């Protein structure tokens, strides 16, 4: 007998995600789920985004990692509330994990929650957490061929951030080919070239995100 376990697991996750969404809608809190591989610059992109939005919105971060709280500590030193989730080996966050994080946050005092998902280009795409949008971050050193190798994550994203554009002269990265590949997979997803550490291009990304936050919290 062959047992199909994936669907029941996803069904259970989706039911909790709907409950998360209902709570967040009630509190008028916007949730951004950031997806990327390890080393793409998720935390630095979060900090750069916070720099542009913290004067307008009350922000918290949920950090997902297999182990450690290094990134959460970075966020807290920035004066932003952060909740650490360690998955203990799981390659993605699930909606019940998010529910537990929401339980320790004061949602009445928040407008925006940024989720830094576990570094992975496959697993997180299947798990709805109750977020408003998913956004994919790719860094230049990873190569322009990633949309061809991991199409699912680019199709699931409402926007794509191309990080570390300051390293373009160093790496064999064809930006035009990358943009064409993303557009074929997901024609409606804008692409934001940025350098999170240097602040280049972040304003355009932050403005796009701000428009979507305003539609929820105002």
Q: From the helix content, strand content and strand pairing, which structural class follows?
A: alpha/beta
Radius of gyration, rounded? 17 Å
What count of structural domains? Answer: 1
Amino- and carboxy-terminal Cα gap: 53 Å
Coarse morphology? globular
CATH-defined architecture? 3-Layer(aba) Sandwich
Largest sheet: 7 strands, parallel
Count of discrete alpha- or pi-helical segments spanning 4 or more residues: 8
The overall average pLDDT, rounded, is 93
CATH superfamily: P-loop containing nucleotide triphosphate hydrolases
Q: Detail the poorly predicted runs.
A: none
User: What fraction strand?
Assistant: 15-25%
SSE layout and pairing:
Elements lengths: L5 H22 L2 E7 L5 H12 L5 E7 L4 H8 L4 E5 L8 H10 L7 E5 L16 E7 L6 H4 L1 H6 L2 E5 L11 H11 L5 E3 L8 H16 L1
Parallel strand pairs: 1-4, 1-5, 2-3, 2-4, 5-6, 6-7
